[in-house]
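Re: [help] complex structure
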Amino acid sequence: MKKKILSILLACSMVASLAACDGGDGGEDTGDVSAVQESKAEEAKKAGADFENGKFKETKKIVVEIYDRGNDGGSDPENNDYTEYIKKGMLEDHNVEVTFKKVPRWTEVDEINNLLAAGTAPDVCVTYSYPTIQTYANMGGVIDLAPYVEQYKNDLPNLWNWLGDTNINWDKDPKTGNLWCVEAKLAVSNRVLTFVRQDWLDKLNMKAPTTKAEFEKMLVAFKDNASTLLGADADKMVPYSVSYDVGWRAATLIESFLDPKMSDKEFYVNGFDDRKLTENGTKEGVRLLNKWYNMGLMWNDFAQYGSGDTTEDDMMKAGFVGAFTHNWDYPYRNGDDSINANLQRNVGANAKFVAIDPFEDKNGTHTKFVSGPIDRKVFFPATNTEPLASLLYLDWISAPEHIQYLQIGEEGVTHTVTSDGAIAIQPATGNAIMNSGMNIDYTITVNGLKLTSEELTNKSRALNYPGIPAEDVMNSHKIANTDLRVGKNVNVGAIEAEEGVGDTLSQKRDIAYDKAVVASTADFDKVWDEELKNYLSAGGQAIIDERTKKWEEFFGSSDMLP
Amino acid sequence: MAGKEKKVKLQGAVRKVDKKVYLKRYWQLYALLALPLIYLLVFKYIPMIYVQIAFKKYMLNKSVWAMPLAKKNGFEYYIKAFNDRDFINALRNTLLLNLKDLIFGFPAPIIFALILNELPFKGFKKVVQTIAYMPHFLSWVIIGSLSLQLFAQNTGMVNMLIKNLGGESIPFIAESSHWVRNYIGWGIWQSFGWNSIVYLAAIAGISPDLYEAASMDGAGRFQKMWHITLPGLKPTIVVLLIMNLGYIMGGGMERPMAMYNNLVMDKADVIATYVYRVGIKGLQFSLTTAVGLFQSVIGVILILGANFISRKLGERGIW
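Output below.
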């Protein structure tokens, strides 16, 4: 009897599961999203009717992508003080119910690809790669924002105020008028800097280097004095450290070999990749790295550790690294767990990394190339049935007071106010923990500190890193802004050759950099030329050619932007 | 399906039971069989509907039936793949790595089973066996980091040892051909114990009478091994060899992915990682489905071919 019941049960569950599968699959097969898209235009009108004085009569629901950084002891990215703040505000101000969907930070593109293909992507998506969005758009997966941002301009005052025509229409196709995404704005254009161990310089009675030659001399001194500086750990000494991503992690060095006055055209044509692999001069920068590598001045194993590996950070924290190049605030990030805080615990009170600017270009200046005031790109997938509500969301998080709250949190919990009115960030606990510095993951239209007044921002910048002396931060900020060359918008429409090749080319680029750095001195030219050829033949050359053609189509024979 | 027919035949032969009565009596067993069949249907056959995107231009907003045919009569992506140096490189690497795996990895469990079989102490044998199984349960991610910890050029333990003994560090994972050896080695390390189970089971099935008779005739250990154990294992070896030949174009993604680095991509990039990078990350679903289909077709041809040859040589095949 028991056996019979059991088998009936089993059979039933099978039938049920089969039915469920069939249902799900059938829906996917027959569900034609284009039909949804057509009806969407009508819905938008309906939404307009349902919409009065910035508020919907009926509650609308939207889902917003949020990066999950998987921080140890962080707060739940979908559910913390800041998500509550946004949810409450959006419901009160616009009658829109917001839910967050977390996406792993380091594999976000893969994840969004899958969600889009499955038709379950969040209504508001964000990514760093425009070609990716362009690819989605060509597959019919993205909403054209152009009509919406214009039609509802008056309902989106904060968005237009903050991003302006420049960032909203940055990617508007000059021919078709399509707008697949809006560009977030960089409040601070600080990019990459070089850091050095101040206490090692002091110990060896050296001054901070101001030229490449002095920098090299310093690295040699670190190596020669390893036993003075590290004692028993002398063999772990790494005078200069980079990671597999050489183009980023030696950016200031490489850029010092480029022509500071290079034409806009040259910069644009080679600008698909911000690691500058194909720029004139890059090779000589890598040759210098190769020389240092062969002199034993660099971390030998850098290319063997992949993305997200913490080995290098751990070496910095343990005090084995003399100098490195990285994001302008890298050693100050993460409060108690910052590199400098760890150094002080592990090595001594005076151990710290400070920013220097040692790589002079051919004019003796220290030109740093930045790509323009743009940052992440926000787009709405075709499955988004509430584009207006989603735009109102972007508007809401672009309001100055909301940005400020999200960046600095609650007084007494995440920050204190100093006697002169500046905001000083302090480490928080529980649901008030910001998983990313200044909640950059929630303020998707801003990157960089932006408080309600410029004066307050400047006063507070230095106090934004708990435990780090204000003068260290200001020093970094100052160097990061020395001799900036800000890129301009070259809007010539979609470059077809860029679609779908981003990851392949990024990897080829890294391989080219890595292999050239570790090559023997005699083989350097051969390896570099071969790997560069590899990169170009895998699609790099096609991009350069198409960009050149498009440039000439729009700007003729002029080398500079109008 | 084959099992069902066989069962019916068997039952019919033994007891001449009417089909109806038979089904009535055993329907529960078939109900149980339904579960794996449904699994196959849902996860292996229904997804095959999407194989057609190999010949179509993939669209996010269209059903798979409504997507437009790709250029060049649907063969656009095949032409593109074979013009892509990365794909050719991945294809070559897949074949080479799998072939080396087969050459060096295939005999390892057989040898291990033979050695283990010669051990007189049961307890010791069991311990050795268990220890040898264990790496099978480690994921490749863990093995990859083990490999890094041990063999990194500067910070790896083995190289530190070599340097402290006065030698030169060896680029085990930083140079392509060393890396390949390292890769094959970890593969053998991970799987020889586990794969030996089948052979040990087959050895256990050989009649002890044969060994006794051989001993009477004065055969030594190696002679027994050569003339009794190995021939006894032959059918098993052949079946496994055929199955392995089918995998020679395949292979998982985790192992190369967890072990490769930028310096060795020329020999480490295989079809699986190529598909992941270009298809999933680069959103070229059509291109990579085409590659995947190509890979499967070759795999089927290889299996059929191996099976055919084995039957021609007088061995039992899989079919």
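The CA atoms of residues 160 and 166 of chain B lie 10 Å apart.
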